[in-house]
Amino acid sequence: MNDLARHADCLRSLPASCGPVRLVAVDGHAGSGKSTFAARLAAALGGAPVLHLDDLASHEELFGWVGRLREQVLLPLSRGEEARYAPYDWTRRRFGPARPLEPAPVVLVEGVGAGRREVRPWLAALCWMELGRTASWERGRARDGAGLTEFWDGWTAAEERHFAEDPSRPYADALVAQLPQGYAWQEGPAATAGANRFVTEGRRGAHPY
After folding, report:
1. Is 149 part of any domain?
2. Which DSSP category does 185 fall into?
3. 152: CATH
């Protein structure tokens, strides 16, 4: 966890982006390790809340969750209020009882498309998991088993369409690659374009990981 402590400090020092909240997106291809990374970063942040976009998507709307995210999460947080969202049950194919999401100093939103254009104005930082789509999808399929082959076939086609129309990586503040131990961090395309808010001036000369 030590490799994440410095980056957690950087996140805490960012200006709030959604009311009092610093909303940080963790995006990347399905199977790229977003959930694991988000959990470890949340722990480094002292238990920051994590919103999984799988809870807002559904079988019928794999990427049609923006309205739910805005109404159930972003607008309440922007007012400094507790958000309440209804997570989707992928087995029962229906949305369940509402869960609370506190307006903590840093809140992580994790999932494919977390850095899409409708969400970026609300973000303090965007992290992209630097693992190619083929390797990510192979890892995801192996994780989920043969029983979800049909779902993965539909998912990969939908994900490919989404990123073709609305890519996240060009706007990433940080590119994150999983190592045998810990993570490697590099400045993302947004940083090289001069729009980076993730790495402070005092740390620009430091090694990114």
Report:
1. yes
2. E
3. 3.40.50.300
